[in-house]
Design brief:
The structure holds two protein chains of two kinds.
Chain A: H1 4-7, H2 11-15, H3 21-33, H4 35-52, H5 63-78, H6 82-105, H7 112-120, H8 125-140, H9 143-161, H10 167-190, H11 192-202
Helix pairs in contact in A: 3-4, 6-7, 6-8, 6-10, 8-9, 9-10
Chain B: H1 3-15, H2 19-41, H3 44-60, H4 71-90, H5 117-120, H6 123-131, H7 135-145, H8 151-158, H9 162-182
Classes of the chains: A mainly alpha, B mainly alpha.
């Protein structure tokens, strides 16, 4: 038989519908016989239903206008200048070209991983994306894969810069870079000298 | 289309630069977020400032919104953190978890004998009872019983483990019950 000490901590779970059927039946049996626990349950239920019945409140007039104006101002503040966006794109593109050249013509002692870390240290998403493209190009050295990587890169960059009105600029720069990367990767794949160097490294 | 799907569609349009989509999200959820902040902070002007800050932050972070989650819960999370920062800066004592037995005006004893919760607990009284709870206990109570969020969602909004939320909810309901008793409600008639 359940007593009050055991019943009281279960009352909230009963109100929340969290008790297993056996525990619920046992507690309800106790409640039917115990006025003090029934009173506790009623007060808990009264508080909960009181919160539920609270009406919605409205902010003062003009709230929406103030929020939207502040949001627009915040977006203007956070947007880099078009010059900065072009400079970043140019830096990322130059890095991508440099990496493509390394990927295609580097001698075995050059550490591509070290150069990739340097690229990521630029802390610009475009540079990281370009570095990822090079990895794909180096791994597969196949034109369709390089082009797919380039398309992904363009999509990522478009999303990064869509708010700054430079989508066309970003896409056009990246398209040129991607085409160059793909071309270099294709040339590198076709170079018997590189294949020979690669097979020498694995020995 | 349900409200979450409407929200997700509006977020997609807002991300694509359609400002009217964010105005739509704002008008749909503004009152809920403001009401929550008003009851959490206890001041209409503070609640309005923090609500504005929360909606502006949400707007600038739309790219980080996870569509798997209800938009309004995400905004509640931002509002909660903005409100905590506000309290830390202006009223750090309000962040205590102690129930300080804040005074509640006496209630006409005859009201306690009425039959239904709606008749007995008018909005003004329940607002006063809630205001007498420490803000950190008010929050889970409002999110659970006013906003009708489940435990995992509340834990996410408050950035707390579910166990902590459960304990705070339990204590908050107990405190509210004690305050009802202190106001002369005896629970016999409900």
């Amino acid at each position: 038989m359940m007593n009050c000490d055991k019943a009281r901590p279960m009352l909230q779970n009963l109100l929340e519908g969290l008790l297993p059927p056996a525990a619920k039946a046992s507690l309800e049996k106790h409640l039917s016989a115990c006025a003090a626990c029934r009173r506790e349950k009623s007060l808990l239920a009264l508080g909960v239903s009181g919160v539920l019945l609270l009406p919605a409140r409205r902010p003062g007039a003009g709230f929406d206008g103030r929020v939207l104006a502040a949001a627009a101002a915040a977006r203007r503040r956070s947007a880099p200048s078009p010059v900065a966006v072009w400079a970043l794109n140019a830096a990322a593109s130059a890095t991508a070209l440099w990496m493509a050249a390394l990927a295609a013509f580097a001698r075995p002692r050059v550490s591509v991983a070290a150069v990739l870390r340097g690229v990521q240290a630029l802390r610009h998403p475009a540079a990281a994306v370009a570095a990822a493209e090079i990895r794909v190009a180096r791994a597969g050295l196949a034109l369709p894969e390089a082009l797919r990587a380039a398309r992904r890169s363009a999509a990522v960059l478009a999303r990064i810069h869509f708010a700054h009105g430079s989508v066309a600029a970003t896409l056009s720069v990246q398209f040129v870079v991607a085409a160059v990367i793909a071309g270099l990767a294709f040339v590198a794949a076709a170079r018997p000298q590189n294949r020979f160097a690669a097979s020498r490294r694995t020995r | 289309m349900d409200i979450h799907e409407d929200d997700r569609a509006a977020v997609r349009r807002a991300r694509d630069g359609d400002d009217s989509a964010y105005a739509e999200l704002l008008s749909r959820h503004r009152d809920r977020v403001f009401s929550f902040l008003l009851r959490f902070l206890g001041s209409a002007s503070d609640a309005e400032d923090v609500a504005q800050e929360a909606f502006v932050k949400a707007f600038t972070r739309l790219d980080s919104y996870d569509p798997a989650r209800p938009f309004v819960s995400w905004v509640f999370g931002i509002a909660h953190h903005a409100a905590l920062d506000h309290l830390r800066a202006r009223r750090p004592a309000a962040l205590s978890l102690d129930d300080r037995d804040m005074p509640i005006e006496a209630v006409d004893p005859a009201r306690g004998a009425e039959a239904s919760a709606a008749a007995v607990l008018d909005a003004e009284l329940i607002e006063r009872l809630l205001a007498a709870l420490p803000p950190l206990y008010r929050e889970p109570l409002l999110l659970r019983h006013k906003e009708e969020m489940n435990l995992p969602e509340i834990a996410r909004v408050l950035s707390l483990p579910e166990g902590t939320v459960k304990v705070r909810l339990f204590r908050a309901r107990e405190m509210l019950k004690r305050k009802l008793e202190a106001c002369g409600f005896d629970g016999e008639n409900f």
